[in-house]
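Re: [help] complex structure
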Amino acid sequence: MSILAKMKMQPLLSVRDLAKFYGGRIGCADVGFDLYPGEVLGIVGESGSGKSTLLSCLAGHLAPDRGEVIFDTKEGLRDTVLMAEAARRRLARTDWAYVHQNPRDGLRMGVSAGGNVGERLMAVGARHYGQIRDAAVDWLGRVEIAADRVDDRPSAFSGGMQQRLQIARNLVTGPRLVFMDEPTGGLDVSVQARLLDLLRGLVREMGLSAIIVTHDLAVVRLLADRLMVMKGGYVVEQGLTDQVLDDPQHEYTQLLVSSVLQV
Amino acid sequence: MTDQTAYNFAYLDEQTKRMIRRAILKGVAIPGYQVPFASREMPMPYGWGTGGVQVTSACLVPEDRLKVIDQGADDTTNAVSIRRFFQRTAGIEVTEATADATVIQTRHRIPETPLTEGQILVYQVPIPEPLRFLEPRETETRKMHELEDYGLMHVKLYEDISRHGQIATAYDYPVKVEGRYVMDPSPIPKFDNPKLGGNAAIQLFGAGREQRIYALPPYTQAISLDFDDYPFTASKADHACDLCGAPDSYLDEVITDDQGSRMFVCSDTDFCGSRRAAGHIGPMGTPSAGG
Amino acid sequence: MYVAVKGGEKAIDAAHAWLAEERRGDTSVAELSVAQIREQLALAVNRVMAEGSLYDPDLAALAIKQARGDLIEAIFLIRAYRTTLPRLGASTPVETAQMAMCRRISATFKDLPGGQILGPTFDYTHRLLDFKLAAEGEVPTAPTAPASLDAVPHVTAMLNRDGLIQTEAEGNDTPPDLTREPMELPTTRPLRLQAITRGDEGFILSMAYSTQRGYGRTHAFVGELRIGTVAVEMDIPELGFSVEIGEVELTECETVNQFKGSKTEPPQFTRGYGLVFGQTERKAIAMSLVDRALRWKELGEDNTGAPAQDEEFVLMHADNIQATGFLEHIKLPHYVDFQAELELVRKLRREALAHGEAAE
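Output below.
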């Protein structure tokens, strides 16, 4: 893509002056950014920094108190904050995907792995059992789950497998924007590495746009093109991932980066 | 009859009937859509047909001939009780003959004899929400209907096939109405599902406890949910009726001794009796038996 | 030769006759009069009136007699009767501050204007069976104090003078009628209160208890509990003023609950409210706790996922007439459904067995 074409390119998501308050306490405030197609944005900060609140507001799980979240829908630019619940849900099962930190929140634990992956396909009209099952088996393969586990329930899976299943379930319909909330949280370090590898492969291969919230700098180093650092509900620094991590300007970012290096 | 003087015709007051008729009309206008209505407390328990009774009450006129069946039979206790209720409170004529009835209230069956234009079939519905056992929240299921968010419904069918090799829903089998609303046909056996669509009669569904009315106007499309490669099949016991010999009616299985001997008889008592009266005799039947 | 089971009508008539005989019991024991039930089983009568949503002690007593003491069955009889009654009009709101009280206690103030009145309570009775009651006899008269005719302001009104407790919204809107309109969720507080006041006492009690044990804790104190009679007044359009048409006995409970403050409100106490027909103290207190737990959204509190905070769960399962009807309907014949299941299980077993043999 030429630079000119890229400059003309419409952001997939534009966030302006977003704020959410809990009583007198700030959840997040003054947040604004553009996310372009194919771009991965990392949001880092300690717990209570407002990063999860921000993600919930972006994904329509929480109503912000102020601000705009403009998404480039198939019908043109729309502010998802003002959207009717119906339209927002339609987005959530077509153009968007949401990977929860705890796979139990994103999976149907009483439904087989195949049924979990097939649900989004069926929601958009797939009505051929054989084809749905083939697609499910294919996706299980892509997230490195053996085909003979297709009829097992997620409760019989390890934590890492559950998380990979959740990713397959989300990506099967080819969403344009994926929200991820601490996708590697709660997993063993070795399992984390494998999951990150897998995620990186899928992001590159599918050209996914994604917003990843995490407290783990290794995750963003590996996956994110750009980075936002949050503290006390505000964005204190943002820029290209390498730039922010290698040459942190804000003292909080410096602390964050140095604390990792010391480990 | 003294009760008739104490209560309005068919028990409910006219204002309540108008409210119910409005809900019925709305239901007829939007086939398969569950219309909330202010269900009244009836003198029979919730879950025993209060929805059907209220719909029947709102439909009845003095010239009507009413038939009431439960499990296809006119003589089961709850059918007897409801029929008596309307005899007492409306003084209308009653009948057991499907073809002679103008209004038929039913629990769990559609009569075998095809219905005709002008007839009204009223179903008693325990749980009107086809999504209820997949999603317990009313607020959530209403939203799912609004958005035609029916993926979960097929997940259930998918799970059946992956576990049992076929769709393991034998009754209460959901249908999609005119390509829009997924509807619960009440707990009729799936054998009866093909009679829901394209039926000449008006089909009304009343759920008293859950306060919902819905409808299939005559000749409405109602398609049983399935997969292209696992199509819906209506099924019944692989027998003919032992009393009347009918090969194509829905059958009850009756245990006849403590050695496990059993026989199969039509669940539709009127259908079976008429066939025997017309000279169709099964292996264990006589023309007069059961009358 | 098989003959299909017939005779439903005869069986029903015989069953009803038997029921009537059992209701009467041993004829050598004197028959219970409706007046005896009304006077001597007054708390049962109160419960039937409260959950039947109909204030008529004589009818409630009759229903208890007819139901052989099964209170849910009695409530059902009252509800079914109530449905057929014409709605002639609505009263003006009753003034509980003007209540002629037989009991009034506050857990938040040791003494207060109007004083504390213990009244006819089980509290502080030792729960020892009183065998004197088995031998019938007259009871001595209780001592009396002169009645005060002054209005007694509510404890919460006194707190509110200092702005210490949240002010309830005033309104002249006619509240919706749960028995005339279908309940649609999410609902409003007036509708919620209606549903709870006629809800099953056991269910509301358990929900309230669960909040005390930590499932949606609201830190409630009984700010005030009062029991007594209030006048019921109705506007008569032809007259242009309201006239008293009778009086009813009510139990009212207001709780005072902790509150940290919100976006718009400084820290202050909040309230839960219970109002129930008759002397029905346990129900009124439970009602006020459940009401308060359900107000989490309006007061900007967190939903902790507690059952008592879940409006749909509480309101859809509180009604014992709905619950008992649906519970007991599984006694009705289900041959048709069972037959369909039977065929399916047989078919699945056939296929599973055939599959097993093929595999061997």
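The longest strand of chain C covers residues 220-236.
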